[in-house]
């Protein structure tokens, strides 16, 4: 999928890590202080660049998980990766890192859009969708959101407490978590993959002409997007972001 850059925002900035907490056993939340941050649209991403003492550098893209008034990333550790193990296990609070962005213009939700929204996430694909949920709350938007979130086990849910709280306190946000390997004790449904029936039951129906945002591993995204189209959704209103 092609990305669209916002003009003038591809300059590298030096950001400072101000807070880091665990999201799961293999993922961390990073909060960055970015001088002159211009704000962002929920769904956009940033590029991070690490440079070694010998001059070798490597960069990776990470979706923003925060509302536009702050810069927060959710980083999943990839054991054989060059960047994520350092970000998750080594980078200390107070450290500086190069960042540029925000980048992206297609996979974004704008609070001025009044159509119902279906969000579908696989694993760490919740990150940009969390930015949409938080922005909706910040803007006091009344646009109804439905989130369908697929994870392996209860231990793999990002932002678990926050999602539970927001769904409980906000009648306009519905959250459905699908467990593919192991469910919580006492769960009424067995584990299983997210399928057409779940999308049909917990997403907005096609006749409501919702916007649908799908993010996760490539195979997951393609399967969900195809299922939404099969359910009658306009392909132009199914936005996808994939990784891996």
Automatic annotation (TrEMBL):
Gene3D superfamilies xref list: Nucleotide-binding domain of ferredoxin-NADP reductase (FNR) module (3.40.50.80), Translation factors (2.40.30.10)
Originating organism: Lentzea fradiae
GO molecular function: 2 iron, 2 sulfur cluster binding; oxidoreductase activity
Annotated protein name in UniProt: Ferredoxin-NADP reductase
Residue ranges annotated for the FAD-binding FR-type domain, each copy included: 10-109
Superkingdom of origin organism: Bacteria
PANTHER family, per database record: NADH OXIDOREDUCTASE HCR (PTHR47354), PROTEIN RFBI (PTHR47354:SF5)
Keywords, ordered alphabetically: 2Fe-2S, Iron, Iron-sulfur, Metal-binding
Keyword Iron-sulfur part of the UniProt annotation: yes
